[in-house]
Amino acid sequence: MKHKNFIVNRIAEDVTSGRTPKVVLRFPPEPNGYLHLGHAKSIVLHDLLAEEFNAELTLRFDDTNPKKESAKFVNAIAHDAAWLTPRFTRTRWTSAYFADIHRCAVHLIECGLAYVDESDPETMRFLRGDFGRVGAASPGRALSTSENLALFARMRIGELAEGAAVLRARIDLAHPNMNLRDPVLYRISHVEHHATGKEWHIYPMYDFAHPIADALEGVSHSLCTLEFEDHRPLYDWVIEHCFAVLGARPVQIEFAKLEVEGIVLSKRKLHALVEAGQVAGWDSPVLPTLAGLRARGYTPDVLREFAVRCGFTKANSTVPAETLADCVRDILSPVTGRRMAVADPVELVLNNLAEPFKVEVPNHPTDSSFGTRHRTFTAKLWIDRADIRAEAEPHFWRAYPGNWVRLKHGLNVLIKTVEIEAGRIVRVVAEADIGSRDLKAARHKAKTALHWLSDMEAVAMPARHYGPLFDVDGKCDLDSVTRTKMLVEHGLEDAAHYEFERLGYFYLSGGILHHLANLKTAGARTR
Ligand code: ATP
Ligand code: MG
User: Fold this and answer.
1) How much distance in Å is there from the Cα of 20 to the middle of ligand 1?
2) Quick one: which ligand is closest to 28's CA?
3) Nearest to 209 by CA among 48, 65, 329, 401
4) Looking at the predicted structure, is the pLDDT value of residue 374 above 90?
5) Backbone angles phi, psi at 438, to 5 degrees
6) Closest CA to 44 of 263, 261, 309
7) Which of 22, 37, 393, 426 counts the highest number of beta carbons within 10 A?
């Protein structure tokens, strides 16, 4: 067994015991928004299980609430899911089962297990009781089967107004689990459905539609997040009492939702930002949607690794944001070319460099298949302000007057002067040890190597650094995006990842550098 977690174990047991002849799984997004990082965890889990058990994996649009759903979301979800994994072998719509779900409802009414309730919502809520008070029957509970069938038929063809009636399961009004106190199975909605148009005026509730869709698709194990644990008895009730119609017994298994420090994973909250125009769209790189993460430069492999590292458990926990940065570094490092960039440039003048000269620089520290490139040393270079001090400081080994530093891949220089204007460092003058291109011939050892750019080869590019989008009070903080300009080597390709030496991982897209992660050791190594 390649993957290990409680769900793998559970399915393996069912396969071994013969209870599950064939593993069939589904990922069931509601098309009422874009997929986000939390959905990625669920998709990766399904993907791993499908691989492990050679299972069929369906992308099922759980489209039972036309008020909030649209074809735009269907398309975006299909695209993003396929981006993450090629393992979805079929696409289905809960709306395609409306007739079957309706048949199950009629079956329940005929069995005396469902009734139409015309109470107004407030009365219904009151009659259901609460944790300290058992529920009481509304008048509908006493209707005959034929009265219920007639009323349900009128609901279906649109004769009753929205909110005028619902179909409820007849289970137990005193049940300690509120989900079993005669839950609503169908509600009226006159909104046009993105797939079925005006055909239906009633729509099934999630708790009713879901087990039926699972059964119809031959789903063996129906995975969902922990907040549905209390709904499982209802899932089982529906399967049990509709078995005569459905002939299958899927089971529900719950796992913990992904929660990440500083990242809001709620379609409702993301929806509000998009609707209010606070972000350009669902695919804005500030959002933790898959489309936003893709725009920022996260790759499927990074998100996959992240999901696996977070683990699949039954206990909720919050993952540190740094785990995502760890995955960026670990996944991108072997497949990403190194380049140089300067985040906050200060001029460095080499006062004894008569002629520019070229050096050959590897594009990757360990993988020679990345090839090499040429970089030119000119008398005017750029280095990072963070690497400069006006005078010596304890434990600071970089550029200050009198100190030797190495310019990476090049030569050693002795810092002569650090010029300051209006309290700000504006220029550094240094003398190059021309012979030190061969380290063994260096006149002086340098304790540290600085990244640099030649004036001739530097291009300015806008960069974005992303912080938490919501502050501690849950309010959206769009100032969390820091916009800077960086100098980078010329000749970078668009839609490509780069590790800028000492600065971290960036994704260049549309002429903008999106910051993905710092280098883990940046601070420690360069002091
Ligand atoms: P949201 O709370 O953001 O609206 P949702 O659960 O309502 O999400 P659905 O489209 O209904 O969104 O979810 C599709 C599947 O993705 C569900 O099976 C759900 O359990 C799973 N899922 C959603 N959010 C997470 C998350 N944070 N971690 C893991 N799985 C998730
Ligand atoms: Mg939902």
Assistant:
1) 25
2) 1
3) 65
4) yes
5) -90, 110
6) 309
7) 37
Residue 523's pLDDT band (boundaries 50, 70, 90)? very low
Ligand 1 atom closest to the Cα of residue 43 is 16
Pocket lining: 28 vs ligand 1, CB cutoff 6 Å: yes
C-beta 229 within 6 A of ligand 1: no
Nearest CA to ligand 1 atom 25: 38
How many angstroms separate the CA atoms of 390 and 406, rounded?
18
- Residue 41 Cβ inside 6 Å of ligand 1? The answer reads yes
Pocket perturbation via mutation, ligand 1, pick of 37, 39, 319 by most ligand atoms within 8 A of CB: 39
Mean of pLDDT over the chain: 95
**Whole-number pLDDT of residue 238:** 98
What's the 341 CA to ligand 2 centre distance in angstroms? 43
So what's the pLDDT on residue 471? 80
Maximum CA extent, the chain: 102
8 A C-beta contact, residue 115 and residue 143: yes
Interatomic CA distance for residues 263 and 257, integer angstroms: 13
pTM of the predicted model, to two decimals? 0.94
Q: In the chain, what are the helix, strand and coil shares in percent, each to the nearest 5? A: 35, 30, 40
Q: Which two tokens stand for residue 275?
A: 């609707």
521 pLDDT band (50/70/90 cuts)? Answer: low
Would the pLDDT of 525 be above 50? no
Can you list the pairs that 374-378 forms with residues at least 24 positions away whose Cβ atoms lie under 8 Å?
375/340, 375/409, 375/410, 375/454, 375/457, 375/489, 376/454, 376/456, 376/457, 377/350, 377/353, 377/407, 377/410, 377/411, 377/432, 377/454, 378/353, 378/454, 378/455, 378/456
pLDDT in tens, 207-260: 999 999 999 999 999 999 999 999 999 999 999 999 999 999 999 999 999 999
pLDDT digits (tens, 9 = 90+) for 57-90: 999 999 999 999 999 999 999 999 999 999 999 9
The token pair at 252 is 């529900």
Helix (H) or strand (E) holding 32: none
Other C-beta atoms within 10 Å of 221: how many?
22
Which residue's C-alpha comes closest to atom 17 of ligand 1?
A: 224
